[in-house]
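Methods, example record. To illustrate the input and output format used throughout this study, we show the complete record for Tyrosine recombinase XerC. The sequence lines were provided to the predictor; the line carrying structure tokens was produced by it.
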Amino acid sequence: MDHPAAPDVTGSTDWVGRYLDQLATQRQLSPHTIDAYRRDLQQLSTLARGMPWQQVRQADIRRLTSILHSQQLGPRSIARKLSSWRGFFGWLSDHMTLAANPTDGVRAPKRPAPLPKALAVDDAVQLVSSEPPGRTTLTSAELCNRAMFELLYSSGLRVAELAGLDVAYTKGGDGQAASLGWIDLASGDVLVTGKGNKMRTVPVGSHARSALAAWLAVRPPPADGSAALFLSERGTRVSPRVVQLRLKQHAIDAGTPVHVHPHMLRHSFASHVLQSSGDLRAVQDMLGHASITSTQVYTALDFQHLAAVYDQAHPRAKAK
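The corresponding predicted structure is encoded as:
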């Protein structure tokens, strides 16, 4: 009795070509998508150095992704290639015996966390100190805004911490909660309760103290009977969302070329203090980070600044 011929798995059959034909005819993928699959699978074949498809194991796929990573291919591109390879081996298992899909369990390298966006020093200073065009006298609402923005940049507060500030410490009572944060202009400090109910004290710069004094001179009594430092148009404690919207509009009016949000001023504070001092532990304390790992991201921003200075200033920086 004759036995059926063993499937051709040595590479003489154009398995990749057959798979691509199936994608084009049955799944009706676009020519652009088919070309992308073709490039991914041709690269797999090249990296596998002609190894028969049924002999490719998970360890081989891990090795190939490591090669791609060492060639500076980004995590997103590697993930796309793995997806292409996974689909091919899934289809191939219907046409030959595979021990398993060798791509199963293989993941692309993690994408690096994006660096927080910080303004350049001059841009940050210009933003928080800018005045309405053609005017030098500010309304009470504008004085409130300036004090908020100066304080955000001066002390690196979270927007919720800023919104929760009182004019001074209050013990509570009569339905009012005790202060979680307050300003102390006499000592030049702001005290806030951050994440994990951890209280910290952060210095307030001279420009922020001047802006706060100007605002306090015109600040009306809060309509809600609270001791809130910063007020909404209704005279109640300002919300983080209102701070965000006011800063966004202020940045547009000031001609800032990027979208600005309160956390960007916090990032700018941390980056600029680190650039000047190099004291990572002090920046950690002022930001209220429980772990210094959270603060270390600013060392990358500091290096970016140093690299930019080098590129602009060093006579051999642009030598090819």
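Annotations derived from this record:
The two ends are 72 Å apart (CA to CA).
The beta strands are 182-184, 189-193, 199-203.
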